[in-house]
Design brief:
The chain folds into three domains: about 55 residues, Roll (Structural Genomics Hypothetical 15.5 Kd Protein In mrcA-pckA Intergenic Region, Chain A); about 90 residues, Pseudouridine synthase I, catalytic domain, N-terminal subdomain (Alpha-Beta Plaits, 2-Layer Sandwich); about 80 residues, Alpha-L RNA-binding motif (Alpha-Beta Plaits, 2-Layer Sandwich), CATH 3.30.70.1560. Strand 11 and strand 12 form a beta hairpin. Helix 1 crosses helix 2. Helix content is about 20%, strand content about 30%. It is built from six helices and 17 strands. The strands form four sheets. Strands 7, 8, 9, 10, 13, 14, 15, 16 and 17 form a nine-stranded mixed β-sheet that branches. Strands 3-2-5-6 form a four-stranded antiparallel β-sheet. The chain is elongated, with a radius of gyration of 20 Å. With about 250 residues, the protein is of the alpha+beta class. One of its GO terms (biological process) is enzyme-directed rRNA pseudouridine synthesis.
Length: about 250
């Protein structure tokens, strides 16, 4: 017997967290009866599980690296008809979804998969998978302000974790700066809100690296399958490391 949300995630329908939301919303049926209790357990392969009336069939796992353009939604679908990252994979038959999010105006590296457990491993904040962003901001942040960002800065939903922040270059005529930020958190619009908190609005934002993966060889809107060794290395990079005692 396994928890229903785990079975849904392993089937590639959604991450475990989103599977829990599907259950709570009454969109999951077990043996033709709607289930809304998160503690429900089922017998994989024996109990009939459907999501929105569609039988749950385990798919072979697939993994893609994608260069998300600006003005594309980080979602599998959108009820307002906006272009989503999944729209760039019309030939993929599996029910893939993005691992985490990049906001609508942000471009850069994303991973898409139908492997819910894999997605959970990468997104769990304790696993500290590093992500590298390049931000073009208005003005020139002072060294003290950059140190603020590195140490962690108070936002409305709590203090950010320590990050690596590096001034790359500046344009005096346009009064802009290019800043590199390496962080492992993924709060909503976090990088943008961090710079807003020090009064330097982001003009352009791009995620250039996810763990060891880069966008080398890809243009905006293009993708490639991840190699098995890359999937393995991502899993290894997401293993929680015990904190060192002082």
């Amino acid at each position: 017997m396994e928890r229903l949300q785990k079975v849904i995630a392993q089937a590639g329908i959604a991450s475990r967290r989103k599977a829990e939301k599907l259950i709570e919303d009454g969109r999951v049926q077990v043996n033709d009866k709607t289930v809304v209790e998160l503690g429900t357990k089922v017998r994989p392969g024996k109990d009939k599980v459907t999501v929105d009336g569609v039988p749950l069939d385990r798919e072979a796992p697939v993994y893609y690296l994608f260069y998300k353009p600006r003005k594309v939604l980080s979602a599998a679908n959108d009820d307002r008809g906006r272009t989503t990252v999944v729209d760039y994979f019309p030939e993929v038959k599996e029910r893939i979804f993005p691992v985490g999010r990049l906001d609508y105006e942000t471009s850069g590296l994303m991973i898409l998969t139908n492997d819910g457990e894999f997605a959970n491993e990468l997104m769990h904040p304790k696993n500290r998978v590093p992500k590298t962003y390049i931000a073009k901001v208005k003005g020139k942040p002072s060294p003290q302000q950059l140190k603020q960002l590195e140490r962690g800065i108070e936002l409305e939903d709590g203090k950010t974790a320590p990050a690596k922040v590096k001034f790359k270059t500046g344009d005096k005529k346009k009064d802009t700066s290019i800043i590199e930020v390496v962080m492992h958190e993924g709060k909503n619009r976090q990088v943008r809100r961090m710079f807003e908190a020090i009064d330097h609005e982001i003009v352009k934002l791009k995620r250039e690296q996810y763990a060891f993966l880069t966008l080398d060889g890809l243009n905006a809107g293009e993708s490639r399958p991840l190699k098995p060794i890359e999937v393995q290395q991502l899993r290894e990079s997401a293993v929680t490391k015990p904190s060192k005692k002082s």
